[in-house]
Amino acid sequence: MSLDRALPRLAPKATPGMVLTLLAVLALIAMVGFMTVGANGRWSFVLPFRGAKLAGMVLVAYAVAVSTVLFQTVTNNRILTPSIMGFDALYVLIQTLLVFHLGSLRVTEIDPRLMFLGEVVAMVLFSGLLYRWLFSGEGRSLHLLLLVGVVIGILFRSITSFLQRVIDPNEFAVLQDRLFASFNIADTDLLLVSAGMIGGVSLVGWRIFHTFDVLALGRDAAIGLGVDHKKAVTLILVIVAILVSVSTALVGPVTFFGLLVASLAYQVMPSSRHKHILPAATLIAILCIVGGQVVLERVLALNASLSIVIEFVGGLVFLTLLLRGVVR
Amino acid sequence: MIELKSVSKQYGDTLVVDGVDLTLPKGGVTSIIGPNGAGKSTLLSMMSRLLPMSTGWIGIDGLDVTKTRGDVLARRLSILRQDNHMTARLTVRDLVAFGRYPYTKDRPTGEDKVHVDRALGFLDLQPLADRFLDELSGGQRQRAFVAMVLCQDTDYALFDEPLNNLDMRHAAGMMRLLRRAADHFNKTIVLVLHDINFASCYSDHIVAMKAGKVAFQGAPDAVMQASVLTEIFNTDMAIHEIAGRKIAVFY
Fold first, then answer.
1. ipTM for the complex?
2. Mutate to test the interface with A, among B106, B131, B148 (most CBs of A within 10 A)
3. 3-class DSSP state of B239
4. Can you give the pLDDT at residue A96?
5. Strand ranges in chain A using DSSP code E only, listed in sequence order
6. CATH (residue range A2-323)
7. Is A216's CB within 8 Å of B105's CB?
8. For A120-171, how does the pLDDT look when each residue is reduced to its tens digit (9 = 90+)?
9. Which Gene Ontology cellular component annotation is one that this UniProt entry carries (chain B) (predicted)?
């Protein structure tokens, strides 16, 4: 990887275990900080309140990190992520369609759990169709994939902006509020549903864990080594679809976050084995969201949205990767 | 034994492999030669189930390649393609160790290490064992991939132009190694080769393809005839016998 060579490796002599431990300690500090810094109330209130938010952030961090790394493994590249392939645009479209057809009042009345399930199902179906078509073939070019993703994203965004133009201004205000990514999740019901789904797909993933490293060698090598490539890729894409859906439905669209944490994980880990990269990416994601939230809200006392900062940094990483020519 | 029965591959209207019937005996080194676009690599890819056939049947020791479980086949047949680009950042040793995946999945055993070290030794790779693949030259990388295939230790090993990027010393070394694998370890080696002189010197059997069909096959002595090769490659060739080996001169 040209990026690996271009940037000095952060830990030239460190073993994967050492890096993971360091990341875990940092993530733990961030989590403890989030639970305690600036708490001026009764602990019996502060801890459960912040605990639920923290649990939400950890879930999202895990879902985004794992889904991005696995997606990059099955597509054999380090630059495409599910979000870049138009996932977030679909989420926005679904929200807009709902408000457009039902009206904001009715939409806010829908049971959020039901809504959540509906969104997840829609996105899994969409990604199932698209990705299956794109990746089951005999190795399509990365540029075609990128192009298809961008075009589909534009299509969704165009439909969305058309609908938003013809919508009632009041409805639009409600809609806009729903569309900003926010890591302040308060709904514990949703958290339980999400945790259940993420746990379920993680179990499935655990059972085929040994295929991940082999799949990273590319389709031909994986088949040569006896992996049922089509089956494994389909299964992983479903896992990815569910993870991304859950995280998008929980916090809204974050396009470049996955890319950011996956790239950082590959950068700091001296090994590209999944047993090292997956935990590293998850810990980095936790560090970014939780640590970022602490610094932004508590220390700097800013009301700026963390998602904007993350998107900004992630976007810069994306551009850097493109400019350094990781896409070949 | 590798059997192919009326195997065809079609891309749109183009017939790349056209009803090939072929039986490759067990044991020995078989080379597939032919001009560009003759369908050699496509045929090899279909034999190793990397590419689905349009029509036909391929069996490895009677096992249908399209129906047999992937991991069963992976313990019987290995394949090396021409182009081996990968995103994962691996050391040579890591890569070679993947050859043991069909046997032990993700739980390497002591025996695996023996296999890995032996494969590294066969290809002179011990000094490079802990280097990353992206730090190697094309030829060194090619040898690392061949080591992975040898480490897979299958009865049948298929190579698509294994001499790519290799200098003379390593090309000859590679062919001697494959010869040894066939003679001493009873492996069946199938190669796609561009250099017909390598095919002549190291094969037991040569299959010549042209325009998607098997044009000629037989022992090197039978194939290495000026009339046969001129016909297959559409180029004037002269055959000389040097030190008991038939060498084609076409320069």
1. 0.89
2. B106
3. strand
4. 84
5. none
6. 1.10.3470.10
7. no
8. 788 778 777 776 676 655 555 666 766 887 788 889 889 988 988 888 888 8
9. plasma membrane
